[in-house]
């Protein structure tokens, strides 16, 4: 197992380097670098000032040279400087990461708590009215655009009923309150984005759980368990669900990275101050350093959760070994 993990970590590093170079090159080809934006905002700037600024930012060098300089900066522990926020990235990135982590984990937890029981129940009672209704809402969750769902949630629960705030992360000026007040305030701002993200994942988790559970319950080991006189609860959860868990592990772990990196639209719609909103603002404002750091975090999460999925296989199924 240790050898396998080390080999996968080496592959992860190589993949990160390759993808970061591709992303860096593509971003370098985008029109409108920081100096061009300065020229647009200051009509009195001279050509000498433009040349000096390009030399200062290294924009007069080839992309591979600029990439090497960026890698040296990252390797030294410095994430760079944000041109949009005018502070080092390391000062605000941890808070944004924590906000996105909380939103992602809350969404996955809600999706699992809803989809697993419904998926198992519909697999045991296929082609019933309840099964058709649940599958209808599952397909709706898979198909509905995330931005439309977010807007509908805001219109219904914020504008019409006024139960939850329409956007943001916390109420301004509440930082010095007690921990209970801060927690309740964060939950109010977290509910709608969590529902928006969770509903899209519920459909995927439910369909995979239902399909894997139906296949598992047709196995020979289920007939053997019934012949031995085991209780139905033990047959369903101890034998059927455990074998269906392998495919669910793959979907859940990969969905963790999808939710983490794919919260851009949801965070933007709800103005939730996470990494997704940060990527959007950095792209619109051509904040090169912030966009690259955010991209590396997203790619790293995808590769990390893929490794976690492979490791969890061995715990879920004793037949799997990486020795």
Can you describe this structure?
- The protein has 323 residues and is an all-alpha fold.
- The protein contains 13 helices and no strands.
- The chain has helices at 2-28, 34-41, 47-57, 63-75, 89-124, 129-143, 146-160, 179-217, 220-227, 232-261, 264-269, 275-284, 288-316.
- The longest helix has 39 residues, at 179-217.
- The mean pLDDT is 77.
Write the layout of secondary structure elements.
Blueprint: H1 2-28, H2 34-41, H3 47-57, H4 63-75, H5 89-124, H6 129-143, H7 146-160, H8 179-217, H9 220-227, H10 232-261, H11 264-269, H12 275-284, H13 288-316
Q: In percent terms, what proportion of residues is strand? A: under 5%
Total number of beta strands = 0
Helix content: over 70%
Largest sheet: none
Q: Low-confidence stretches at least 5 residues in length (pLDDT < 50)?
A: none
Order of helices and strands: HHHHHHHHHHHHH
Residue-averaged pLDDT: 77
Shape: globular
Tally of helical segments: 13
Gap between N and C termini: 6 Å
Radius of gyration, Cα only, in angstroms?
Answer: 24 Å
| Class by SSE composition | mainly alpha
What would a concise description of this structure say?
It is built from 13 helices and no strands. With 323 residues, the protein is mostly helical. The radius of gyration is 24 Å and the shape is globular.
